C-alpha cells in the first residue's frame, strides 16, 4: 500500500493519493498524468500547472491500517504545520490520523481543501 504526496512549495498546496498497491510509474510519469486523478478542489487545475511539483512516496504496511493511519498522519502533519493547504476532502484509506499531534479537527475551506 502506498500514499503519495504531491506538493508545490510556491503555492503551499499538496494533494494526497492513496493506492492499495505500489505505483509502478516514475515520479515524472505520475506528474504528467495528474489529469487522471480526481481531486474535489476548484484550485486543482492551477496546482497541476505548477512548475515546482514534487513527489513523496510513503509505503504503508498492508493489512495494518492503524500503522498506516499514523504514518499518513505524520507526513500530512509535516506539511500542514508549515502552512500548506491540502486540496480536496479529508478522506483516504487508511484515513490519516492527526490526533497524536493534538489535532482534533481540520479547518476546511469550501471548494478548496483543508489545513490546520
Q: Summed up, what is this model?
A:
The chain is an alpha+beta fold and 116 residues long. The chain is 23% helix and 26% strand.
Give a verbal description of the structure.
With 116 residues, this protein is of the alpha+beta class. The protein has one domain (2-115). The protein is 23% helix and 26% strand. It has helices at 27-32, 44-48, 65-80, and strands at 2-8, 13-19, 53-59, 85-87, 107-109, 113-115. The protein has a 6-stranded mixed β-sheet.
| Number of discrete domains | 1
Q: Indicate the overall shape.
A: globular
How many angstroms separate the termini?
26 Å
Distinct helical segment count: 3
Q: Into which percentage range does the β-strand content fall?
A: 25-35%
What is the helix fraction of residues, given as a range?
Answer: 10-25%
Strand order of the largest sheet: 3-1-2-4-6-5
**Alpha-beta content class:** alpha+beta
Low-confidence stretches: none
* H and E order: EEHHEHEEE
Rounded to an integer in angstroms, the radius of gyration calculated over CA atoms is 13 Å
> Residue-averaged pLDDT, rounded?
88
Largest sheet geometry:
6 strands, mixed
- DSSP strand count: 6
